[in-house]
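stuck on this one:
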Amino acid sequence: EELQKAAVEQKRDEEKERLLKLEEDSLASHRARLWEELDAKEKVLEAERLEEESSIVTRMKGDRKQNLEYEQSKLQDRINWQKFVSCTSRPNVAFENEITTYMTMVREEISQQMEEHAMRKCRESEEIVGDLMELYCKAREEGDVARQERYMQYVYEIRKLEIEQIDEATAYLLQYIEKQDANSHSQVYLSWGAQNDDIKVGFWGHLQSKGFRNKQIDHPKIQVGLDLPKSIALQS
């Protein structure tokens, strides 16, 4: 009888443990399902939030693009207006016809011009060279050899034109050198530009054909010096 009672108690305990295990498993399964549902809801909410933010970002990008295009348009209008009111002849180097027109206009101007005007045209030409070099670099990035060669050809031609301008202005100056102020040694020193300028010109002339003794020509303003050849420095 005692053994039977013990067996019944053991069976009851085992059943209790089984039921407890079932309850724990059920609770664990329920918790897992709740977490999955909560995670799914959060994912849905996150997806909705991202979609809403994406539409906002897209709209803001569109607005920004429109604003940028508008500001660029206003800037270009101001540039065009400034070019108009200043009567500048600087061409838009993106258009080949404007480059050739500019070069033709320069060549057709009075050839015997003063040095100041020649310097001004040379500085203007160097600005155009800078524009061309920007397009050259862009063409090089894109691997467009034909455009590179075309832009560099214009650079060479424009700089050749600069030298022509300086030569013609200097030739004009030589024709009227007697009218220039000379120092006590009958020498004429003239210079244009400053020490740090990209383009600067120094002019020296001697008004006497004899009695000249000079070994060096200095232009302190533009920091340019020249040692004369012995055959010239010692002539009498």
Q: What stands out?
A: The mean pLDDT is 79. The chain has three domains: 1-88, 89-175, 181-233. The chain is about 65% helix and 10% strand. Residues 1-88 form one domain.
